[in-house]
Design brief:
By secondary structure, the protein is of the alpha+beta class. The protein contains 6 helices and 6 strands; from the N terminus they run H-E-E-H-H-H-E-E-E-E-H-H. It has 2 domains: about 60 residues, no CATH class; about 70 residues, no CATH class. A two-stranded antiparallel sheet has the order 1-2. A two-stranded antiparallel sheet has the order 3-4. It starts with a helix and ends with a helix. The N terminus is likely disordered.
Length: about 160
């Protein structure tokens, strides 16, 4: 009988973890097509040269598919995915700070701050990275506050 309860507990725990992973997908930019960073290699941002990944070097983390330019970057990501995932789910950091909005980004407009990847909207003569740089410390606090509010609205705190 004890073994049955243990088995049911483990099974229920696994089911909860799986459900949590699917809920998290809603946080990410491009979650509808399931491809992060418009196919850019997440690790390549940290070398200062973001490049498109290849479909042959793909990995799915929390329901989002990442592509990498080579096996080394894929393996690096697998060791510590959270280190390379863009903050605010890959949505525009400036828009998150300014209004808490989910705005798509230009994957080549980015900044690494304290080891974290921030992405920005950059179209139609509106490069939000320039605005961000003017008040970065203030925007970091605002964006973090708005992101927590957004996650709470999803039931993910």
């Amino acid at each position: 009988m004890k073994n049955l309860f243990l088995f049911l507990f483990i099974l229920a725990s696994f089911g909860f973890a799986q459900a949590q992973a699917t809920i998290d997908v809603k946080q990410y930019s491009n979650h509808e097509n399931g491809l992060a960073l418009e196919g850019y290699d997440a690790v390549s941002y940290f070398t200062g040269n973001p490049v498109k990944g290849k479909s042959t070097f793909s990995f799915t983390h929390l329901g989002i598919r990442y592509r990498f330019s080579n096996k080394k970057n894929l393996d690096t990501f697998k060791i510590d995915p959270e280190k390379y995932i863009p903050v605010y789910g890959g949505w525009c950091a400036y828009a998150m700070a300014d209004s808490g909005s989910l705005v798509t980004v230009d994957p080549e407009t980015y900044k690494i701050v304290d080891g974290k990847l921030y992405l920005f909207y950059n179209q139609y003569f509106n490069n939000t990275l320039k605005k961000w740089n003017r008040k970065e410390s203030e925007y970091l606090k605002l964006a973090e506050h708005n992101w927590k509010k957004y996650l709470k609205s999803l039931g993910n705190e």
